[in-house]
Amino acid sequence: MRNTPIKQLFYPFAFLTRAIIDLVYPPLCLLCEVRLAEGQEQICQPCLSSFVLLGKPHTEFSVPHDLYIHQAWALFDFDENVKNLIHHLKYSQRRKPILRLLDHFEKSILKQLPSEPYDLVLPIPLHPRKLRERGYNQVEDMARWLASRMGARVDQKIVVRSRYTQTQTKLNALERQKNLAGAFRIQGSPDLHNKRILLVDDVLTTGATSNTLAQVLEEQGCSQIDLLTLSTPRLSHA
Length: 238
Ligand SMILES: [Zn+2]
Fold this sequence. Notes:
By secondary structure, this protein is α/β, with parallel strands linked by helices. It is built from 9 helices and 7 strands, in the order ααβαααβααββαββαβ. Helix content is 38%, strand content 14%.
């Protein structure tokens, strides 16, 4: 007893506390709110299995001028589960469920993506004001998840969202493009010559935002800019 590390003495206590918390507040599935089985986290198995993974690159953009994105993927069908997950991710600080989803589909996701490594994975940046309000960029975790599995690095400092753009939901493609003019600028003097970049965002609506950023990156000499989003209503079958 005398040699037992103090931490070890608390193990039974911690275990008991956890058991009581679980009894009073049992961990529930984020999406269907059923009680999670032992060993499950964040999203239950039936909900995980109900996500529909889309299998190939798409070209579903609606931009009025040139397209600067070379290849694009939207991982999942834009169904209620995806909408729900993104809502929780953006508005109720629930950051872990998306990683649980990506882990569950890891093999199939990676099989779709190019084997040639990217130099950089860039989450589409939020304006600093928005970042302060939310406390985090909701696509940062997804970007890190992808980068770690594709042997790339994430850089969140290269690009700054320099203009606070008004909400774009009611604008048409041309208005969106105008609204975004000058929205991004490159910070410092990074060497982007011949670099392959993967942009990451949660939902693709028209593609105007990512295309504007892709144009800025191409002007810096990047050789290829691809885009991966979690989903897009443009491909939805729902
Ligand atoms: Zn569920």
